[in-house]
Structures
1.
Amino acid sequence: MLGSTHPFLALVAALTLATQAIAVRAPQAIAAAPTPQPSLAPPGRIVSLAPSITETLFALGAGARVVAVSDHCDYPPEVTRLPRVGSFNSPSVEAVLAARPDVVIGAPSPGNHENVRTMLRLGVRVEIVDPERLADVPAMTRRLAAIAGEPAAGERLVAAMARDMEAVRRKVAGAPKPRVLMLVGQEPLIAVGPESFLGEMLVEAGAVNVAPAGSWPRLNVEIVIAADPEVIIDCSMGTEAGTASLAYWTRFPSLSAVKSRRVHPFRAFEALRPGPRVAIALEELARLLHPERF
Amino acid sequence: MALTHVTWARLARVNGLLGALLLVSLAAAAAIGPVALDWRRVFDASSGIAPDAVILFRARIPRVLLAAIVGGALAIAGAALQALLRNPLAEPHLVGISSGAALAAVLALVTLPVALGQALIAPIAAFAGALVSIWIVVRLAFVGERVDPYTLLLIGVIYNAFTGALLMFINSVVDLYQAHGVLFWLMGHVGTREYPTLAALGLYSAIGLALLLWRARDLDCLSLGDERAAELGVDVECARRAVFVAAALLVGAVVSVSGLIGFVGLVVPHLMRLLVGADHRMLLPASYLAGAIFLVWADTVARTALGVTEIPVGVVTAICGAPVFAYLLRRERRLVEQ
């Protein structure tokens, strides 16, 4: 698995980001599990097992029917009042059943598939959506809209996202693309690789990603100094327990990003998940990369 | 146990040789890395701050030095524990002292406010955690008057499971960003630290080494058994306490910067006992130098084997160390049965 990180780290990265389904693919058993066809009546009680799903359901106007969410769901603010059913990696079957769901919607994660299988065995309707890449977001949105019985809202949301993304793309079009390092941890240095959702967002925002390969490569800082990024987007700064700080980067004075003071923490990090806020997150990224265009 | 005769000349010869080997290793490791350096640009002052110079002096050399200090400290901590517990399989990580130190450091980091200065808190907490862990593990492992080797290992397994569970518990209750930091402690990682940190760490490990060397004769006697040691005029309790504090200082200091790195304290003292004998005046400095050499090379493998992607150094030391541990365990069993 050259280029990809230690599986445990991949898991950590996935958890850290709370953007499930980026680092780990669905086990076949789940993907192929027989799920009942959406019934004609839209479900009145929905349990969401992932932040991106919860966000999308609220954006579709189905928020009032979401009755329970995962521990990691934090947006929109209303969800903090909802009952929790465990982490996205290990949802509690009992808590899900207690919410008396008409449908449970989850994303593939390394730890949830036994529990999801149990829910299926107990006759719960479970739908699995898997927004692994940026290109999957419209399809995921439409699928969630279909499950929630809000197809028209789904089309409107997809169109709005496409329009907002396009607006950002137009703003940065033609601008010289800076070399960029985006990272989620300093020690060890875990970068956003080109084969991840965040890596795709970087490219969309008009960057050349200096991380060479993989989805969450664990890099030696030498590689970074040699690649000499013009912008460093450090998602760990000010958030990680312990070591993360700007001082880490000023130690390496040859870095263009240090010389031109373009080492940025990324505050809109929570929005960087494959959901309805992709365009907002993209604009935040583009603003850091191309301040002259905003 | 026959103690090999130690003379100043022999001490100088062995340590001179290992010291030279360490210097060669440091230089070689500094020359090897995922980025091929252009040596003319490294030393060319006219080009301003060349990336090659920054890579060498700010990234690679601090890391190689950190590996040396951590490796040396872990090796002598292992050697001291093995003598004190009369157990060739005692090792800071295996008996749970390292994870106790990591647990204390993580607890301090997640509960205390950032303003208190985490760089200062982590080593102090890790030292305290290591000290408490040694005390608990040894207390539990005492059967009658002595520490039974296999009981000690089992207590270590259980203590590791316990502290590991607490770490995973903290990991599941802290927020997602902090969780990333918690897992760092479990993985073992030689990072790029700043020179003042290296100096402080070097000082801690020098104090630990000095404390152990001062007690080297006591360690020799203690490895014959508490009663024999007492007959030879050693204040057993006092010596034991001094060695525990020294080991905790060493383990706490290195765990606070590099997390859990196993097996260094096992492999290195064993190899050195074969090469230079069991006299601690000889064994301790030789183990320190050899431990430094071992971890410098283990970390060189960790940072270069996969090209641009890194392997946690604990993976490399475990792959080298676990087979050695299995071999030693088998040999011990056979010796016991004969």
2.
Amino acid sequence: MTEANPATRSIVVERTLPHRPEKIWRALTQSSLIAEWLMPNDFEARLGATFTFRAKPMGNWNGIVHCEVTTFEPPRRLVYTWKGGTVQNAAYGSALDSVVEWTLTPVGSGTRVRMEHSGFRPQNESAYTTLSGGWVNILERLERVTADRA
Amino acid sequence: MTAATNALFKTLSDPTRRSLFERLCREGEQTVWKLTRHARISQPAVSKHLALLKAAGLVRDRHVGRETHYRAEPQALAPLIDWMSLYSAFWRDRFDRLESLLERMDQ
């Protein structure tokens, strides 16, 4: 990891799952399995591999997220860069240059799974929406919020 | 909530307006005529909803000859959205899918 940059923000999701680290590692590092829960991809399970995720295209962006495996320590730690978007998408924020870090820690018969997606800058705000399925998703959430407040 | 935020909520609380706005977000600029074809309501009703969306800053119009073209201004939603929580929601959703995949996988 690079040193913390105060200008960027991270998203951390942590869960303890009733599965062994080796099994979770497979779900995180086999292309066909990754596609089932994250996105279509051409992931390669080796240090230094470059690969892509195929997200929903938005504006001038073709939806491709460019990644590189920067840490590959089965079955404990996996880090890849996550670069998507385009500067041409200016109205919706600049390109996203971020890092996704997975850490698996055995806990009893299960595993603590920690995901940190770091490197968000304020101007990346629109990239969140692109990656999370676009404005329609926002509106679906908005609909729920609206219903809650009605 | 500010008055502006309240106005946005009020404008988007109507399902017809929301679906017009979603269509413009999804498919880009469109004429009133084309929007009416999909809306299952009359053209004057569509125009009325578009006027309300415009008043809330959610759409912008442009006149070309006799036709009025509308496009979405999704940035107008910005005051409503906590961006980080939205992106967190993306990852939480993917974690849910990961969990269900793990349930299906062999040991």
3.
Amino acid sequence: MTPPINAVVAALHRAAPGSRVMTSPAQLAGYDADALGYKAFPPDLVVIPHNADELAAVVRVLHDAGLPICLRGAGTSLAGGPVAAQGGAIIHTSRLRGIRKINIPGMWCEVECGVTLNSLDETLQPTGLHYPPDPSSGPVCTIGGNVASNAGGAHCFRYGVTGNYVLGVEVVMLDGTLRRFGGPSGGRGSWREDWKRLMVGSEGTLGAFTRFWLRLTPRPEKAWTFRATFPNLPSTERAIHGLVRSPSYPVAIEMMDPASVAMVERSPMAVGLPQDHFLLVVEIDGPAALVDARVQQLASILREAGSNDVQFSDDPVVRAGLFKARKAQGGLLGQVSPDFLVQDAVIPKRALAEVLALVYEEAEKAGLPAVTVMHAGDGNLHPNFLFDSRRPGDIEKVEAISACLMERVVAVGGTLSGEHGIGNDKAGYVGLIFGPDSMRMQKAVPQVFDRASQFNPLKIFPERRFAA
Amino acid sequence: MKVMPLDYERLFEPFIDEVDGVLCVPSDATAADVTRLAEPLGLRFPLWLDSSQSLRANISAGDYAPASSRFGPFCDNITGMNWELPDGRVVRVGERVVKSTAGYDLLRFLLGSGESFGRAKDYVLRLRPLCDRDGSFFLTGENGALEQAISRILHGPYLHWFDSVDWLAIQGCVPQLRVTVHCPSAEWKAFADYLSGCAAQHSLNIREEPGSKIGGDGLPDLALKTTPDGVIPLCRELASQNELRCVGLCYTGVVHAYCEEVSGAASKVREIVTRTASRLESNGGDWISRHLTRPIFGEEEDCWVRGLAAEWEAVA
């Protein structure tokens, strides 16, 4: 039987005296949703541990108390990851924000889980080294959340996603013990198996991350940004297909559909783009001698595909302007609509027209606007459905569209998520991608580390419910 | 909203998609098989330790190949596979798209597990654009100068664009730095100029071998994982103390060690592992050898391994 919350609070104060424990409704209000926002999952309490040892002590207390345990960084997840879907406790890792070591000769760094992406980047800047994953929530999102969801970003077409840079993780297991998988060298450590591979992208269901060892690369010497508009989808697709196969090796290929462009153009962030056109923003980076020589080749691919408006620059200010519409898009969603639901499908690039047609058709049928952006190099499509959760029927409509979209995505050879994770938002769809045997293999993983599903229940698999 | 769950395994069928740059081939395919399918479409699979051996043999012999400097380990260049469980049933693991964070990453876990939990039947490979020029540059000279040149290259803007940056060490021979390049012909001069500049600055000799292919070092007898700055000391130690030929993959922190004689390789590997393993593992490194199985690390790992095996065997 679960002890009363005040008894748990007292135990937390005893075991982790430096930690902050919050239980009042006003304090908990900020923790009942992530950036998806339209569904509330109020926790029973929130703990902010002072350091990794206290985090471990907190996990021990919560484990003994029989409360669901949910880890949370900045709460920028778009999949319902860091929410208390079954109530219980949220452990907020915001105070574990030390950048403990930057090893320049070894090209790695050691960071605590609450370090934000941008603060790491700022710290690395003088060293000439670089940590490439760049989800758009970079100014606030934490490395812990990035590792939990295996976050990506615009530049991962060339540089890869978070998991490609994780050399090691330190994890508090359910019994409160600290375990290290990998380390600065990025191997298995003493273990026979490479357990860190299961930890990355595990969405807080296997343990509580405390710190990471991350691989670093040299910062690019120079970059060029290109912006091109296209009158229709076939010409946009031609450009994407040309770019991904080009030895010019773009690092980012970002697409916005006309609805997305129009949304920006109707806002104070307008940059003067035609509202009925598709937009591609492309970047190349590398040594000056290489990238300067690739500029005309890349511009030719865009023009030959059908763009009459190709602009490009290596000037940092102009480059920021060329990328502005794409960067503004995410922030505007929350301003133009009370709620939005963003999907994170990855599709074979040949299927773009078919999937986009379905997005438009279903959105129109439901009477809901849809604006779509895409990490086009990877085929990672983000249709955003705009709705109002207070309006009766809207939630059911977006969920019906999502189900229909996910079925089509899988049917064309794609998958449910490229960089957001499954969370509880997409947990209902995992049955589309895992057959009976592979589903059992998937479900065996949390069973091994947390048989009772106490860590982040109801995530990834809807049946993963904690029974105290 | 719930959807109807699958009642069958979505196994991969052989295919190639030139737009996504992915190719599904049996695990016993060799470089020649892959090249035959990929090259006509302007694509290549760059990761080979020994291009005459099967993909599965390459992947089992080490997590990294020379071109991992540019493209990452094998597991970052395989997007999916058909996996045969010990009882013969085959399941799909991973996807045919190049990016996925749906469920636990069994793909990378199993790829690194040897044959602990079964074996790959087919791989979906991520291919890369094929260029019309490749070759290697060899830098030689005084040891300290060579090390300084490596450090400069590892921290320089060209690192991302070299297929590999390798330290070659053989007992009694002068060590060499091998830098492999795969690029359009028009860009060759930029690479050559950069490396010539490095050589001149550090008073090193430079030799160019156009057209030489990576993947010719062979399957290592032992692969050791350390940090990038640990590669050269480890190569030196193995070359001098154990008289091994070593290829150090400088950016990925991997040392591939080769015994010149097959007989005695297992005992030599055991001796090296006994001497180096705890040092490497304490820093998160490891070792892999086709001559020696890695042991389970204590009761806790034994419990996890048995737990997974039991659940996976119970799939039927």
4.
Amino acid sequence: MSGDLLTLAPLITVIVGAIAVLISDMITPNHNHAPVAVALAALGTTAALLINQGGSSASALGGSYVAGPFVAFLGLLGVSIVSITLLIAPAYLGARKYPTAELAATLLFALGGAILLGATTDLVTLFVGLELMVIPGYILAGYAKRDPLSTEGAVKYFLLGSFSSAILLFGIVVLWGVAGTASLSGIATALASGHTSAALAVALALITTGSAFKIAAVPFHYWTPDAYQGSPTPITGYLSVGPKVGAFVLLIKLFVIALAPLAALWIPVMVVLAAATMTLGNLVALTQSNVKRMLAYSSIAHTGYLMVGIVAAGAGQAAGIAGVLFYTAAYAFMNLGAFAFLTALQGRPGATTQLSDLAGLGRKHPRMALLATIFLLSLTGIPPTAGFFAKTYVILAAVQAGGPATILAVIAVLNAAVAAFYYLRVIVYLFMRDPAEPAVQVAEGPMLRAGLLLAAIGTVALGLAPTPIIEAVVQALAK
Amino acid sequence: MPILSLIIFAPLLGALGIAFLPSSRPSLVRFAALGVSLITFVLSLGILLGIRAQGGEFAFSEQLSWIPSFGITYHLGVDGLSGALVVLTTLLSWICILASFGPIQTRVKEYFISFLILETGMLGVFLSLDLFLFYIFWEIVLVPMYLIIGIWGGADRIYATIKFVLYTLVGSLLMLVAILATAFSHQAVTGSWTGAFDLIALRGTIADPTLQILGFAAFALAFAIKVPMFPFHTWLPDAHVQAPTAGSVILAGVLLKLGGYGFIRFAIPLFPDGAHLFAPLMIALSVIAIIYGALVAIVQTDLKKLIAYSSVSHMGFVTLGIFTFNQQGVDGAILQMLNHGLITSGLFLLVGIGYERTHDREIAKMGGWAVRTPVYAALFGFFLFASVGLPGLSGFAGEFLVLLGSFIANPMVAGASTFVMILAAVYLLYMYQRVFTGPISPFLKGLGSHLTDVTPTEILTLAPLAALIVVFGVMPTILTGSFAQSVQTFLRSAISTVGQ
């Protein structure tokens, strides 16, 4: 039992940390910084525990929770995501008189879900982890509760989210029944015998639909732009990254591990979804003049690129999963960075950022514009940034897989060229247009600056020296 | 000492240093940038001397493990061909920086930082022997050029710069897929990632016929857009017209050569079968580019656009020479690359000098310019005759050798292309006549004392180019000798394995 506790220590720390955040808020109701400090301390401890567990393969909860490098990698990525969000959000929320403590606690709960999701080896814990991760997301989307846009986005997100969870759950239950076991690897073994039935087809269809909702693949993406645009900007940053990383872990566990024997069935579907997702995401992003909405659609496009890795993994290429994991890390840093930049521009309540508001920013705030450029170049996939290497990694896996995956790789790079247009257009406004009148107020406190800097360091470091992360990823998959 | 790394990263380090200089002192920034580029130039002359002494195919090799999981290494090396192009780059870089002293008056610091980063990217492309590393530098070149055109360019700069980037990006991204496919096929055959991205290890090992064809097609598209070959040339006139003078110079002088170099160094040695399959198409497109570029140049009304189209025509000789696969043709192609780099750069500098005074490039408004500024007119005439291909100046040797090579390969092609040498004389001399001779036009007259002759600084930017044009015109063997070994290696590696 004590061994169990030790294995579960990171998860427990996160949950205890979340509760401690709430308590600290009760004790010091007028200090926004205390809960953030408590949360960061909990995150630090979690990170240390995760690193410590990186080499082990201890299991807990009767074998349904397995610690090890995979959880360590995901957990640390989650810790980075939550930390950066916590650094960039307080100033923004403070200016609008929204509380910070609840954000910190909610994010920690979601992180707990993500860790559980990463560690799980069976369907039940998988679903629990998923829900623990996404339900905080619904709350966060409606964080600006007096803002009708935020409420609308949250309601959409909640309704479609729970709807898709129900579909997914139904599929999981049927799969369990067909395979006779809830263990992910057990399902793979059971299905490997070539067993097919109508029930299995139903399970596959339901799981595919439910998962497509979770990752916001076209045509199940309709909730994203509204949910993203309505939420407070730093929270949008989190929503576009955190739940997406978790959803791809779900995909890896369900499709690449459990449903691997059915790869021939789901790969064609995934290829079509991926191609549609990146193409539509990019084409619609082209037409946006609101920067936040543009980033929302661009995040849909990135879902498509990530799916390329899943397809390659389904075709038996371990590099596919490694590529997805590397991509999630790169995407987390660059996208959070882009949203941190946007947060800095929206210091005043009610500020919305149109492309034209960015005009001439490079002249007045050269450092801020430079950081934004790094994130945008990375999102475009220009070397030597993280985004370039991430894209290369999934494309390499797809080329290795051959067949339809290679065609998907070509579609992906052509999409990258389309995406270059709207990312570079932002740079056009930053540097090549005359300053806008009235000029945008840039609010950069020390915390926001730290968040921006962390994201930028991640974006550049992953591009210049990807080897440590590749090794971590490869090690995470070695077991 | 890792001299090649030093050369590549000296401009980048300089750019970092300049970032800390105060923006309020633009002249300090200007001279710092000039200093950095001159140091890089001197260093590059050093390697030129060392190439022969070192022997072997590539001198000054450096190889460090970088991303070992995929066998990606930091592998640099230089031979006669890349050495010549490196020196062309470092030479044009300091000339461009010096030529920007006057014209660039806004955001001076950002400009020179961009320019030095651009230099690092270009040098990296020429010196990389690892496909992945090469690709990274190839892409890095895009960003500063995008900014240089987009920030310091003319009225339609944003349209031009986005067109430039998107065109180049489409080609290069498909090349990325081809690079990855090549690396993977190496891994699949040998069972190891070692050398999967290494040019030297990969040459002559790609047996898969599909990869030969598709790989060549993808590489060729990327390089054809860069050269640019017809019909991928439409970004070039826009980019040239909108770019600031130094941007046009570096674009014509070096960036277009990245494409020609890519064919010789990467596309053909890696995929000889694919290259032979596509050779008739490439030759046909080259001839079209040569003729079409010249014809379109005749009707241009804007000076810069005229020279831009003449570039399309001249660069057609480069691709034509390469795809003859014989020594004369390839020698000529490389000569043409270097000479075009010297001559067209000079012409763009001269157009820029004129523009500084008139703020106009409309040929119809000019006339009789020689009356007021004889030195300027004489220099313009010198570069113009070099561009026409006057024997004794360097432009002649390259085109002549290309025609000789293509005559061996296909006399029809040579005949059609020779005809263009007359067209070149037509559009250039006709332009010169309208701009410089006759009575002075009302427009130029109206400028009064603003229409000054060239300054000593401007002469300093043109003199090295002019001197080299004469030297290489009289003794082209200096150049052909320096890259003879590269050409031999290229011709050996370009032999189709299928055809044997």
